[in-house]
Structures are given as structure tokens and as C-alpha cells.
């Protein structure tokens, strides 16, 4: 069941959008499933925070409607939506104790004292805040402060979704994993819908069941971490996810093969079909550095090696193939390189075909 | 001062010039004042030592106690009006837009008027015959108002003038403090369902503590030293109903040529300011930081 | 929203109307001032300004005021900047006590020091010069400037200093090339406050001068004479004292908000 549904939602901060460039968020239809753990991933300024603020109601979209279940909430203020939000920097009421901080949203809603007390203690227990309940919130470390911010969202009975806006920015790297694990536990226990904004792919891939990748105010792909890795639907996703990102090689289509320079790579039937239907435009082949294989001399493609970096468990080779930069991860690169030349081949099951930057000819697309 | 600093005593060379000048401007006169206060000066050349009795006289003197009482009352009244009003004005000011610049200029304007000109402005403005305000109160509201003859009118004028003169200082400081609060605090409060009052009480007021401490301290010190403005308007009268500490002191020193007495009064006066400032500072920095902390 | 705007407008009117009344009065003739209440001068006259500008005593005293204010700022800042840097960056013997002692001078009532000041400046032959007033005003302006600048300097991360020293900068070169530009707005704010407190102070300025360096504000008391008060010339003189302040604020109007927080928000 869809919990939050965007119906033609778009936003422009100037209020009057005429061309696509005027939008901070391009018009979109999108649904967030109830109980899902989503990561919203994208570079700075891609519109993730705008999207999040539209969900929470801090921002009213300039176009379209927002639904929670069947209810149109577009015009509802944040406190009347069942939503909590955790910000980039811990937002605490400095003059209050931890207990009072946690109780604040309930007190504002005139909940019974005994019920407040029970809820606060439950949430404190779950987040390991029991020992600091009486302390002033202002003196605590960033990790505890972020937990308190989160606790203020959990304490309400009606909270159905928690939105996180890059919540680990101010946390020490050693503590990040701990807080992230605690987040997952909370998610398992309460199955709130969680939307987690980040520009850090590791954070996104380890936290979420589903990752929503955004670029230039648009959602470019929604999928599991594995789908994003293996079948990026947009060259941006391929490039943005993975370290280093996907290789893209310009090519032209000839019948059922792609031609790079003088040499041909055979395409799958569905890829060839899609390419034929697509007609003209830019074609690119995409393949992850992990999936490129070394070939015997004379076979495959000859790439000129420009650098080899030892990354410990593998070598990262940078090579040039007809003007396209290739990154290749190999366990033992030096065994295959002769006279600065490395012969490579592209296994067809890992080869993706892109037409005007979008993935074509793959079953996933058909199935969706 | 932050705690994370280089330990180096050569830094004294950097503070030395400033220290010497401040010492010249304050230490030498200070020693002279202490010296006077322990003597009664008959004239500039022959004086006899009378020691602590001067201080004792000061504390029992009608003139001193009267001026101190009026001073404390005046300071208490203007702080009670100007602090809430200044916070209120800061809250009504727009955070951005074209109006901000001109509003700032108007607010800062009274602060840059020489103190006797502040007095002059109100002397004219509040007169019943040639002043808009005085004429309005007398002829439209039909309230008998004359600051030269009625002590209630005189107090009202002096307090209103202080509000006119200094509320902007508190408003500008608080405005700066409000502008520095990140938007996320307001957003979180909206999600938590906080009322406007709760936002003020639990977000804005705690975040303003630092600037409010500065504002209240400055206002306390300057209101306690008030001189030229009431002197210009009321001349300390009627009678001595608006004679505050500084005026009493200058009257004693220059009007009565009683330097020893004036010096002793002055030292006590300085001491009282230091003491109250210290108490203010301690209370303002502790309040809302230690309660509930174990 | 509209209630807020109305409240703010009322407060601004409260600030402006007394000033409006003063300025309008300066353009009225003395007979109009004393005979009737008018919101607007019936007959605009510049006679009071004419009188002031054609009197050497008035123009001279205006220049005296401007020069001791400028001198005071010129003395205060070069001494306050290194001192503030020391307080913000170094841990040295008795630093906290020294800082506190500086601040106590902000609280000192000048009235206490009138007689010793008078004698002190007499004995060093500076009495009745603009230098005396400029020096005397450092009593409160120097501690104030140190306090303001220390706030701004502590806002600059110490890593910047350390990096510069590692890059081989000497202290003076680092100070001029890197540090001063970083705290430019702090220096502006300190200068603004020194200007303000020196310009509006009267008690010391009045005590340390007689005829040769008489401040403008003291000169104004000459308009009260036994035969009556020359309200017109007083209003014109009062209006003139507003001008330097208005000019200064206009130049710093975009910095006022951060400036009034003294670098401490």
C-alpha cells in the first residue's frame, strides 16, 4: 500500500516555472510504500531536501498534490501530518532536559501526563537514552543529540513516517555505523516508513531497502542496492554509484552488434531490438570496472594502460580505449599488461546499452 | 576567550601598549581618587587626613542615599520597560527584504545622537508651549503635564526619553541573535506542534541568552551612569526629584568644591556598579544552564 | 503578520517624531516657534543655519568634536587590535585578570574621575586641546574595542594561524596579509562603536576643554541666555549633530545586525 503519494508534484522556488530549468523539483508521480526504508541519494543541489520538505509539509509544492494514504495533505501544516523529521544538525531545545525534549511534541498535543511518561520511557529505552533522561540536552555529544531528535519523532503514537535529512553529517565516523544500526533496529521494530536523504552512497546502500537516486530535480532510478549496481537505468546512476563508477564507451549500432572503433561486440536480442527501435541518437555501452575481464593477447580489445594503482586486494587499472577512459579492477593486473597494453573483454551478461543516457533493451525495464 | 590557545608570555608585548594607555587613563586618576577620598580637601594645597570617616559619612548622608535610591528606581524601571520592548521590536522586524536596511538605520539613529542633544530633543518635544508631545498631553488628553514643575511629569519624561534613546540597542542585539538561529529549529518546532509562545520560550529566548546578557549589562551600566539627558530636560528637578548619581556627584565636586566627599561617593558608586554588574553577569550566565543538571 | 507590521511601524514613528519635531523647528522662525504649534514651517527659513555657519565659534566647535572623535578612533584601533589578538590566541600570565580589569573600565562612571582628569591633563599641558579629549575617551573605548575585536577574532579558527606559520609566514606578515582581511568587518564594527561613544559623550569632553577646543555640544549651552532661549539656533545645532551619525550608519547599514552582536552570536 502506498503511504505517501506524489501526484504531479513539482516545485519552483520562484513560484512561476516556465521551462524545466526553473524547477528545483521536476514534475513527478511517485509513491512511497508503507513501512519501506528508503534512501534518497544524489549530489548536493539535486532537489533531495526539497522533496523531503514537501513530504513533511515544511514546503508546499508549487504544483501537484501530496496524498497520505487517501487523504490529500497538500495544504496541511507539518504538525498535522503524521511525520517526524531529523535534521542535518541536532535540533534540541537547549534549556530543557532530555526527558522534556522527548515529551515536548506530546505536551504540545495535550496528551495525558501518564501516557507521556510511559511513551518517553519506552522511547528512551529503545534508543539507550535511559541513563541521560535527567541531564540537560545541551551538554551532550552529537550522537546522543541526534538520537534525541529522532526520539522526538518516535514518541508520538501517530508517527507513520520519519524523514532524515543527512542526519549523520555531524557524527564521528566511528560512531556512524552504530547509529545507523540502531536506526535499522528501530525500523524493524516499528516499521515506520523511513526516508533517508544522503549524498553518501555507502550510507544509502547499507541503510535502505530501496534507493531513490535523484539528479537535477528528477528521480532517475528507484531500486534495490543490487539493481542500482548491476542495471543502472541512467548513465548518471552508473557513474554516481560504485567506486569508481561505471565505464561508458561510445559506440554505434550495426545490426545486432555494437561497434567500438573497428571491433564489434554482440548484443543480446532484446538490446538489438531496442536499439533498432530507438533509431538515431547517442549510444553508449556501460560496464562496471568489476566486470571487465582480461583477455589473452590478440583477443578482445586492446586498451592502452595509463596508470595502475595498487588498492590492496586488487589493482585498479586506468586505460584508454579509442578515446574512452576505462577503469578496470583486476586481482593481478601486471600479469596481463604487455608494453602498456591490456587486452580486455566485456562479458555480455554485464553489458548495458544506453541510448541518450537511458538504459534500453533490458528485461528489467520490460518487467517494470 | 576560548580555551584552546598557545601558551606564550611574550603575548604581553602585544597587550602592553593598550595596557599602558588604559592604565594612564584609569589607574592614575583612580589612585588620585582613592587618595582624595581618604582626605578632606580644604583647598588644593592644604589637606588633612581623615581616613575612613568620609566613607562612613557617605553611607549615612541623605543626599547620597536619596540619589542612590532614585538611581536604582530609575534603572529598574527602564530595564523593565526596555528589555521586553526591545525583544518585542526585534521579533516584529522582518528577517529579509528591502525594508531591513532603512529600519536598521532608523533604529540605530537615537543611539548616535549626542546625549545632551537627546535631552534637547525631549526638552523641546515635551514642553507644553512649543512641544508637540507636551501640547498633546495637556490640550488633547487634558492631563496636567509639566516636567519642570511636577515630579511625576518629570519622571515620566525622563523614563520615556530613556526608552526612546536606548530600546533600539536591545532590539538590534536581539535581532542579530534571532537572525543567527538556523531555520531547522523553527521547522522542527512546527513538526513538534509547538505554539508561537513555545517557540519563543524554548527556542528563541534560550538562543538569545548571550546577546541579552550583553544588552542587559550595557543597559544597566549606562542607565546607572545617566547624566546629560535628564540634566538637560529637568535640571535634576523639580527639587531634586530627578537628580541621579552622576549629577549628585558633579554637584558635590564642582558645585560645592567638596572633592574628598565627591571622591568617596564616587568610589562607592563605582563599587556598586561593579558589584551589580558582577551579580547580573553571574545570574544571566547561570540561568538556564545549571538547573536540572546534576 | 499585519499586527507585527503595525507594531513595528508604531515604534518607528515613536523614534522618528521627536526627531522630526526638532528638524522642523530648525526651519521655523523664533516667533513662529513661540507663538504657535505647526507641524510644518509656515515660512521656511535658513536663518539659524546661516547664523551657525557664519559664526567661527560654532563651526570651530563642530570641527573640534569631529577631530577628537577621529583622533580617538585612530589611537584606539592600532592599540586594540594586537591586544585583542593576544587575548584571543595566547595563554599568558594574568591574562584573565587583565581582561577583566579592561572591562571594569567600561563600567567606570566618568564623573568619578572628573577632578583627577582635570588635574592630570593640566599637568601634562594638554588641557583644552582635542588630544586631551581623544585620550580621555580611550578610558572606555579601548576596552570596548578590545572586547569587540576579541569576539570577532575568536570566531576565526586557530588552524588558519597555524597553517600560515607552517607556510613560513612571520607574525607581522601573517597579521597584515591574512588575518586583518579576515576580521575586516570586526574592525569596522569596533570603529563604529568607538565613533559612537566618543561622539555622544559629553561629560569628559566638557571638563577637559574650555574655549580653544570646546566641543559642539558644549557650545550649544551658549544658546541659553539670561534674556531667553534661542530655540531656533538650538534646534538647528541639534539637527547638525545628527548628520555625522546618519552618515556613519548609512555606510554600515548592512553590517549593523551582525555588528551589534559584537561577533558573539
Q: Layout of SSEs?
A:
The complex is a heterotrimer of chains A (368), B (294) and C (265).
Chain A: E1 2-11, E2 25-33, E3 37-41, H1 48-56, E4 63-68, E5 71-72, E6 83-86, H2 98-108, H3 113-126, H4 142-154, E7 161-165, H5 173-190, E8 193-198, H6 201-207, E9 210-215, E10 218-223, H7 225-230, H8 235-240, E11 247-254, E12 257-260, E13 263-266, H9 269-278, E14 283-287, E15 293-294, E16 301-310, E17 315-321, E18 324-330, E19 341-345, E20 352-355, E21 358-360, H10 363-367
Parallel strand pairs in A: 3-8, 3-9, 6-7, 7-8
Antiparallel strand pairs in A: 1-2, 1-4, 4-5, 9-10, 11-12, 11-14, 12-13, 14-20, 15-19, 16-17, 16-19, 17-18, 20-21
Chain B: E1 6-7, H1 12-37, E2 39-41, E3 47-49, H2 53-60, H3 62-92, H4 100-108, H5 115-125, H6 132-140, H7 151-179, H8 183-191, H9 196-207, H10 209-224, H11 228-234, H12 245-255, H13 259-286
Antiparallel strand pairs in B: 2-3
Chain C: H1 2-26, H2 30-35, H3 47-53, H4 56-89, E1 90-91, H5 95-107, H6 114-123, H7 130-154, H8 158-166, H9 171-182, H10 184-200, H11 203-207, H12 216-219, E2 224-225, E3 228-229, H13 231-252, H14 256-260
Antiparallel strand pairs in C: 2-3
Average pLDDT value of chain A? 85
Count of folded domains of chain A: 2
Structural class of chain C: mainly alpha
Strand content of chain C: under 5%
Structural class based on helices, strands and sheet pairing of chain A: alpha+beta
Q: Strand order, biggest sheet of chain A?
A: 6-7-8-3-9-10
Unreliable stretches covering 5 or more consecutive residues of chain C: none
CATH superfamily of the largest domain in chain A: P-loop containing nucleotide triphosphate hydrolases
Please, how many helices of chain C? Answer: 14
Fold and architecture overview:
The complex is a heterotrimer of chains A (368), B (294) and C (265). With 368 residues, chain A is of the alpha+beta class. Helices cover 27% and strands 32% of the residues of chain A. Chain A has helices spanning 48-56, 98-108, 113-126, 142-154, 173-190, 201-207, 225-230, 235-240, 269-278, 363-367, and strands at residues 2-11, 25-33, 37-41, 63-68, 71-72, 83-86, 161-165, 193-198, 210-215, 218-223, 247-254, 257-260, 263-266, 283-287, 293-294, 301-310, 315-321, 324-330, 341-345, 352-355, 358-360. In chain A, strand 16 (301-310) and strand 17 (315-321) form a beta hairpin. Chain A is elongated and about 80 Å long. Chain A starts with a strand and ends with a helix. Chain B has a domain at 61-247 and 279-293: MetI-like (MetI-like fold). Chain B contains 13 helices and 3 strands. Chain B has a two-stranded antiparallel sheet with strand order 2-3. The radius of gyration of chain B is 23 Å and the shape is globular. Mean pLDDT of chain B is 84; it is low at 290-294. In chain C, helix 4 packs parallel to helix 7, helix 4 crosses helix 10 (184-200) and helix 10 (184-200) runs antiparallel to helix 13 (231-252). The mean pLDDT of chain C is 86. Helices cover 73% and strands 2% of the residues of chain C. Chains B and C meet through strand 1, helix 1, helix 3, helix 4 and helix 5 of B and helix 1, helix 4, strand 1, helix 5 and helix 6 of C.
Amino acid at each position: 500500500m502506498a503511504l505517501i503519494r506524489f501526484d504531479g508534484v513539482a516545485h519552483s522556488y520562484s513560484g512561476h516555472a516556465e521551462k524545466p530549468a526553473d524547477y528545483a523539483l521536476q514534475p513527478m508521480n511517485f509513491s512511497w510504500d508503507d513501512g519501506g526504508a528508503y534512501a534518497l541519494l544524489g549530489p548536493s543541489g539535486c532537489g533531495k531536501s526539497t522533496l523531503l520538505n514537501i513530504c513533511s509539509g515544511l514546503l508546499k509544492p508549487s504544483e501537484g498534490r501530496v496524498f497520505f494514504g487517501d487523504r490529500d495533505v497538500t495544504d496541511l501544516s507539518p504538525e498535522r501530518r503524521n511525520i517526524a523529521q531529523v535534521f542535518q544538525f541536532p535540533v534540541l531545545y537547549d534549556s530543557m532536559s532530555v526527558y522534556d525534549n522527548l515529551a515536548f511534541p506530546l505536551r504540545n498535543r495535550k496528551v495525558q501526563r501518564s501516557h507521556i511518561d510511559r511513551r518517553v520511557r519506552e522511547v528512551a529505552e529503545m534508543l539507550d537514552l535511559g541513563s541521560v533522561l535527567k541531564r540537560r540536552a545541551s551538554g551532550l555529544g552529537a550522537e546522543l543529540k541526534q538520537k534525541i531528535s529522532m526520539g522526538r519523532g518516535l514518541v508520538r503514537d501517530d508517527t507513520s513516517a520519519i524523514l532524515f535529512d543527512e542526519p549523520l553529517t555531524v557524527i564521528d565516523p566511528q560512531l556512524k555505523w552504530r547509529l545507523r544500526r540502531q536506526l535499522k533496529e528501530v525500523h524493524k521494530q516499528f516499521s515506520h516508513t523511513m526516508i533517508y536523504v544522503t549524498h553518501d552512497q555507502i550510507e544509502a546502500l547499507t541503510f535502505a531497502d530501496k534507493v531513490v537516486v535523484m539528479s537535477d530535480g528528477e528521480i532517475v532510478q528507484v531500486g534495490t542496492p543490487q539493481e542500482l549496481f548491476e542495471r543502472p537505468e541512467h548513465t548518471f546512476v552508473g557513474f554516481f554509484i560504485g567506486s569508481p563508477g561505471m565505464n561508458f564507451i561510445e559506440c554505434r549500432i550495426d545490426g545486432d552488434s555494437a561497434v567500438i572503433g573497428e571491433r564489434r561486440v554482440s548484443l543480446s536480442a532484446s538490446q538489438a531490438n531496442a536499439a533498432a527501435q530507438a533509431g538515431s541518437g547517442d549510444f553508449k555501452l556501460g560496464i562496471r570496472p568489476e566486470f571487465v575481464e582480461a583477455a589473452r593477447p590478440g583477443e578482445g580489445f586492446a586498451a592502452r594502460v595509463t596508470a595502475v594503482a595498487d588498492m590492496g586486494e586488487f589493482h585498479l587499472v586506468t586505460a584508454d580505449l579509442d578515446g574512452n577512459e576505462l577503469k578496470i579492477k583486476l586481482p593481478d593486473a601486471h600479469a596481463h599488461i604487455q608494453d602498456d597494453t591490456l587486452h580486455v573483454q566485456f562479458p555480455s551478461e554485464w553489458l548495458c546499452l544506453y541510448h541518450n543516457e537511458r538504459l534500453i533493451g533490458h528485461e528489467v525495464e520490460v518487467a517494470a | 576567550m576560548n580555551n584552546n590557545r598557545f601558551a606564550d608570555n611574550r603575548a604581553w608585548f602585544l597587550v602592553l601598549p593598550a595596557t599602558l594607555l588604559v592604565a594612564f587613563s584609569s589607574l592614575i586618576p583612580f589612585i588620585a581618587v582613592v587618595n582624595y577620598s581618604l582626605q578632606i580637601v580644604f583647598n588644593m594645597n592644604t589637606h588633612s587626613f581623615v581616613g575612613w570617616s568620609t566613607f562612613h559619612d557617605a553611607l549615612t548622608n541623605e543626599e547620597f542615599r536619596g540619589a542612590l535610591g532614585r538611581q536604582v528606581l530609575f534603572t529598574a524601571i527602564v530595564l523593565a520597560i526596555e528589555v521586553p520592548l526591545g525583544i518585542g521590536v526585534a521579533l516584529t522586524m522582518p528577517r529579509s527584504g528591502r525594508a531591513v536596511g532603512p529600519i536598521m538605520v532608523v533604529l540605530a539613529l537615537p543611539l548616535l545622537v549626542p546625549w545632551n542633544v537627546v535631552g534637547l530633543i525631549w526638552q523641546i518635544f515635551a514642553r507644553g508651549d512649543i512641544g508637540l508631545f507636551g501640547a498633546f498631553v495637556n490640550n488633547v488628553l487634558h492631563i496636567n503635564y509639566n516636567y519642570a514643575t511636577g515630579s511625576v511629569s518629570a519622571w515620566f519624561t525622563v523614563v520615556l526619553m530613556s526608552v526612546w534613546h536606548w530600546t533600539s540597542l536591545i532590539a538590534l542585539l536581539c535581532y542579530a541573535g534571532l537572525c543567527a538561529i538556523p531555520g531547522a529549529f523553527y521547522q522542527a518546532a512546527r513538526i513538534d506542534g509547538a505554539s508561537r509562545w513555545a517557540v519563543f520560550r524554548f527556542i528563541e529566548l534560550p538562543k538569545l541568552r548571550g546577546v541579552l546578557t550583553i544588552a542587559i549589562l550595557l543597559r544597566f551600566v549606562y542607565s546607572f551612569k545617566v547624566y546629560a539627558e535628564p540634566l538637560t530636560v529637568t535640571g535634576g528637578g523639580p527639587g531634586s526629584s530627578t537628580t541621579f548619581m552622576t549629577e549628585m556627584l558633579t554637584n558635590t565636586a564642582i558645585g560645592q568644591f567638596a572633592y574628598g566627599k565627591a571622591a568617596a561617593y564616587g568610589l562607592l558608586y563605582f563599587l556598586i556598579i561593579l558589584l551589580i554588574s558582577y551579580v547580573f553577569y553571574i545570574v544571566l550566565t547561570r540561568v538556564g544552564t545549571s538547573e536540572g543538571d546534576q | 503578520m499585519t499586527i507585527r507590521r503595525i507594531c513595528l511601524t508604531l515604534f518607528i514613528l515613536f523614534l522618528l517624531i521627536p526627531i522630526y519635531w526638532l528638524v522642523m523647528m530648525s526651519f521655523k522662525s523664533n516667533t513662529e516657534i513661540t507663538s504657535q504649534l505647526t507641524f510644518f514651517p509656515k515660512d521656511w527659513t535658513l536663518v539659524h543655519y546661516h547664523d551657525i555657519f557664519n559664526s567661527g565659534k560654532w563651526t570651530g566647535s563642530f570641527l573640534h568634536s569631529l577631530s577628537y572623535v577621529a583622533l580617538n578612533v585612530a589611537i584606539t584601533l592600532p592599540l586594540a587590535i594586537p591586544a585583542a589578538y593576544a587575548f584571543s590566541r595566547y595563554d599568558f600570565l594574568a591574562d584573565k585578570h587583565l581582561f577583566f580589569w579592561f572591562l571594569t573600565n567600561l563600567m567606570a562612571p566618568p564623573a568619578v574621575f572628573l577632578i583627577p582628569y582635570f588635574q592630570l591633563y593640566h599637568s601634562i599641558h594638554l588641557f583644552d586641546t582635542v588630544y586631551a579629549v581623544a585620550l580621555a575617551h580611550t578610558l572606555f573605548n579601548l576596552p570596548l574595542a578590545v572586547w569587540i575585536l576579541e569576539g570577532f577574532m575568536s570566531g576565526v579558527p586557530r588552524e588558519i594561524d597555524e597553517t600560515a606559520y607552517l607556510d613560513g609566514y612571520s607574525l607581522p606578515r601573517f597579521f597584515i596579509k591574512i588575518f586583518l582581511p579576515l576580521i575586516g568587518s570586526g574592525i569596522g564594527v569596533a570603529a563604529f562603536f568607538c565613533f559612537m561613544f566618543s561622539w555622544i559623550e559629553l561629560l569628559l569632553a566638557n571638563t577637559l576643554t574650555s574655549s580653544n577646543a570646546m566641543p559642539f555640544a558644549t557650545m550649544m549651552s551658549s544658546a541659553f541666555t539670561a534674556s531667553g532661549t534661542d530655540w531656533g539656533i538650538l534646534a538647528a545645532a541639534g539637527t547638525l549633530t545628527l548628520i555625522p551619525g546618519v552618515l556613519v550608519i548609512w555606510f554600515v547599514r548592512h553590517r549593523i545586525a551582525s555588528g551589534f552582536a559584537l561577533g558573539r552570536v
